[in-house]
Each structure stands twice: as structure tokens, then as C-alpha cells.
Amino acid sequence: MNPAKLRARAAGILARLQQQEGSLATLLTRRDEGDEEGFALLQEIVFGTCRWFHQLDAILKLLLDKPLKTKDADLHGLLLIGLYQLQHLRVPEYAVVNETVAATKVLGKGWARGLVNAVLRNFLREQTDLIAKAAESLEGQYAHPRWLIKTLQQDWPEQWPRILEQNNQRPPMTLRVNTRRMARDAYLQALKNAGLDATAGTLTDSAVYLDKPCSVDRLPEFDAGLVSVQDEASQVIPSLLNLADGQRILDACAAPGGKTCHLLESGYAFSGLVALDNDERRLERLRQNLDRLHLEAEVVCADATATQSWWDGTPFDRILLDAPCSATGIIRRHPDIKLLRRSTDIPKLQALQLLLLQRLWACLKPGGLLLYSTCSVLRAENSQTVATFLKTQGDAKHERIDGQWGVECAFGRQLLPDSAGNDGFYFARIRKPA
Ligand SMILES: C[S@@+](CC[C@H](N)C(=O)[O-])C[C@H]1O[C@@H](n2cnc3c(N)ncnc32)[C@H](O)[C@@H]1O
Predict the structure, then answer these.
(1) 128 and 275, same structural domain?
(2) Angle, nearest 10°, between helix axes 73-88 and 113-134?
(3) 324 C-alpha vs ligand 1 centroid, how far in Å?
(4) Is the dihedral of CA 365, 368, 374, 377 positive or negative?
(5) What is the CATH number of the domain that holds 87?
(6) Which domain holds residue 189?
(7) 123 with 83: CB under 8 angstroms?
(8) Ligand 1: does its nearest atom lie under 6 Å from the Cβ of 171?
(9) What is the pLDDT of residues 180-228, one digit of tens each?
(10) With contact defined as beta carbons under 8 Å apart, do 273 and 249 qualify?
(11) Residue 207 and residue 199: Cα distance in Å, rounded?
């Protein structure tokens, strides 16, 4: 794809994100970028512009005499990607300006050539002042939406600046080794032999951090199912469930199946594992993961809250509820969350999380254990959801998670995002008395 077309495509994606018409996962596809290099650059520009969106937008406001019209959202996106490239990429300045200006024609907005040219050149002339001025607002300083900064300040009075800083980093690529089939050290050696430097994780005995991300095709034994891509925080899950042979397990929000597969890889002879999700497309990915890893589960597409539609009445010994959430713990992997998530989403998510807990509780055997987890760092979805549930469900008992890791909360334990390590993740154990 030619450079101007590529920038126009990036601008279009950004405009659609701003209009809430999809996510990076659905909008950024390999549709028409012929070559690997072009796609990598498109990905870099779009991810990077989302990561720094709020800071770039604060700068752009200083450079524009008046805001652009809603119908010019693509032009707004184009200006932001221009600013992103000038600030963060090692592309020569003249090339950024020329290609971004040329992209106006691809967008059918040749009339904006002068405007784009002037904005980018003015930025180059005054960038130190502009960046400092933009940093006078919270959004401009931390490159996050204001509501999220405020919520994090409230939830994490000591840790919030570090959380914001970590969210602006690029995430490491983390692998999960199936340690029943190959010891982690042996896999580290296999990576080394393949020319890939990596280090072992410290939270689990299965996690490996690659020094540099790479395509899964380059990973030794990937097709043979010895290794999967999964953040280390998620890999903590099986160790919190007191698994044993003969148990019947429910993974209630299972797709695309990272945790389902890990539970099955733990090697216990479960009497069954039901992998439930209400999204058939995501379940298709779960089935592909099971196939690649040579694992088996009973896959069910249903709304977990409508237990009468999918539950046969046989109780489960263990339930994993990896609940739908704001995903604020994995912003560095999905920087579009900064644009897509709204403060008004949080009470709705909280209500869904509580309903899931309440409905699934009936499916848990007396003496059984439910593990509630989210990839959120917001107390409202974590400790507070669990507190509300415990208040309404008299027979539910919170069980403390012992550990040297993360932060102990009123209920449960929280991992915060760590640049060299895990994503932000929350866990709480709830026991049904025998
Ligand atoms: C955090 S993701 C789960 C990730 C998964 N556990 C893994 O490790 O790959 C949350 C999942 O909940 C599913 N979900 C949301 N509402 C649901 C509901 N009412 N019933 C069942 N699944 C639901 C979503 O489709 C999504 O796949």
C-alpha cells in the first residue's frame, strides 16, 4: 500500500474508533495491506496514536483555531497520526509531513492540504512549548481520559501515577509453556536455539517473557501445542482453584479459551469441564485453541445468567468466572480502550458481574470454590463487586488469597500492570460452605 493510502486508512480507523464503530481488533485487519511491512507500519501508527491519543488531542487543540466538524472525524484522525509520527516514530519529518498531506487527497479532502501542512509544521516549530502546555491538563499530561485518571487516583492513591505510566508502555509478549509436556527451562533453551532471547516469569512456573515480540510462526513447537501466548497474570488462575482429579469444572465466561486450555493442561483427570460463553465467534477461537493444544472440553454457547437454558442441574466443584469487565488492566495491549470505554460503562459492567455471580452461585456444589477474576484495575468491578455479592449471598464465604504478589484488597488480590511483567488482573476466591 502506498504511504499516503496507508495514512488515510489509519485515519479512517481512528475516526471509526472515536465514533465507537468497532475496536482495533475488528477494524485493523489485514484486508488490503498486501505486504507485512505495510501492515506492521499501519499497526504501529494506529496503536501508537491510540496509546497517546489524549495527549496528541490536547496538542492538536492548541494548534487549531476552531474544532473540526464532526463530518471531518477522518481529518481529525489524520492530524493526530501526523503528530504521533512526528513525536514518536523515527520517520524523517519531511516524509511524515508529505505523506500526511498527500493522504488528504485519498480521503477526498484535498481542500485540507494547507491545514494539515500548517498544523504539522507549526508543531515542529513549537513542539517543546506545545507539549508543555498540553501537559497542563490531566489528559495532556498522562495520555488517558480524564474520568479514568480520576477513578484511578481515587482507587489507587499511591499507585495511580505508575499505573498510568505502565499503561502507556508497549506490552511484553508472554508465553505459557505446557509444563506437563516440556519443562520451562527446556523451552527457554529451545527459544535460544531458535535465536529468540527470553526470560522466565516469576509469578508462575509456566510463563516466559520474550525479549522482543515475534510472530507465533517463529515459536518452537507452537503448532505441536507446547506453548501458547498468554499474559502471566492469567497464568496464576489454576493455582488458585485447588484443582483435583474427579472435579467437575465450569469456566463460565470462557472464550477465547486461554484459561480453559490452561486448566486442562494442568493435567488433572476432571470428570468434565464446561466452557461456556455467549459469543459464538469467540467460541470458535476457543475450539481452535482446544484443537491446536489437543485438549477437550464441553463447549456451550449460552448466556451464563440464564442458567435454565444451559445447566443440567449437576453442580460444579469449581467455577471460574472470568467476568466481562472494563479491561482497564490491559490497556497497554488494547490502547483503544482509552477511546472506547466510558465512565458510564462501569456501573453497567458492575451490575452484570453481580448478576453473573448471583446466578452461577446456584450451580456451585456445597464445599465448592468459585474464583472471580477480571482484567480490570477498578475497585468498583473488583473488591466492591465481591463485597456486594457477599452481602447479598449469606452462604458465600470469602477466602483470603495468600501470596507475596500483588496488592491485598478488602476482598481478593490485585495485580497492577508491570512494564517488564504481568498485566493488571484481579482475583477473589469465594467458598460455598459444605
Ligand atoms: C474476559 S473475557 C473471558 C476471557 C477468557 N476467560 C479467556 O481466558 O480467554 C469475558 C467473556 O465473557 C463473555 N460473556 C459476557 N457476558 C456473558 C454472559 N452473559 N454469558 C456468558 N458469557 C458472557 C464474553 O463473550 C467474553 O468472551
Answers:
(1) no
(2) 60
(3) 5
(4) positive
(5) 1.10.940.10
(6) 173-229
(7) yes
(8) no
(9) 999 999 999 999 999 999 999 999 999 999 999 999 999 999 999 999 9
(10) yes
(11) 9
Residue nearest to atom 6 of ligand 1 (CA): 254
Point out the catalytic residue in the list 50, 253, 325, 375: 375
SS3 252: coil
- Closest by alpha carbon to 265, among 179, 372, 183, 207? 179
CB 397 within 8 A of CB 365: no
Quick check: 54 and 137 in contact, CB under 8 A? Answer: no
Q: Is 277 in the pocket of ligand 1 (CB under 6 A)?
A: yes
The alpha carbon torsion through 406, 407, 409, 413 (nearest 10 deg) reads 0
Distance 414 CA to ligand 1 centre (A): 20
- Going from the Cα of 108 to the center of ligand 1, the distance in angstroms, rounded, reads 40
**11/37 Cα distance (integer angstroms):** 18
Could you tell me if 240 and 225 lie in one domain? no
The answer to whether residue 375 is catalytic is yes
The SS3 call for residue 83 is helix
The answer to whether the CB of 396 falls within 8 A of the CB of 389 is yes
Whether residue 388 is contained in a domain is answered as yes
Helix or strand holding residue 353 (H, E): helix 345-361
Report the residue among 278, 283, 287, 301 best suited for mutation to probe ligand 1: largest number of ligand atoms under 8 A from its CB: 278
pLDDT score recorded for residue 420? 78
Residue minimizing CA distance to atom 27 of ligand 1 = 255
Contacts of 366 (CB under 8 A, 6+ apart): 315, 432, 433, 434
From the alpha carbon of 322, which atom of ligand 1 is closest? 6
241 and 180 both lie in a single domain: no
Q: Does the beta carbon of 231 lie inside 6 Å of ligand 1?
A: no
The answer to whether residue 156 sits within a structural domain is no
Number of folded domains in the chain?
3
pLDDT tens digits, one per residue of 357-389: 999 999 999 999 999 999 999 999 999 999 999
* 265 CA to centre of ligand 1 in angstroms: 20
Question: Measured from the CB, is residue 238 less than 6 Å from ligand 1?
Answer: no
Specify the DSSP element, H or E, that contains 184: helix 184-193
Angle at 429 between CA 427 and CA 434, to 5 degrees: 170
**Closest to 340 in 3D by CA, of 23, 73, 14:** 23
Shared domain for 386 and 241, answered yes or no, is yes
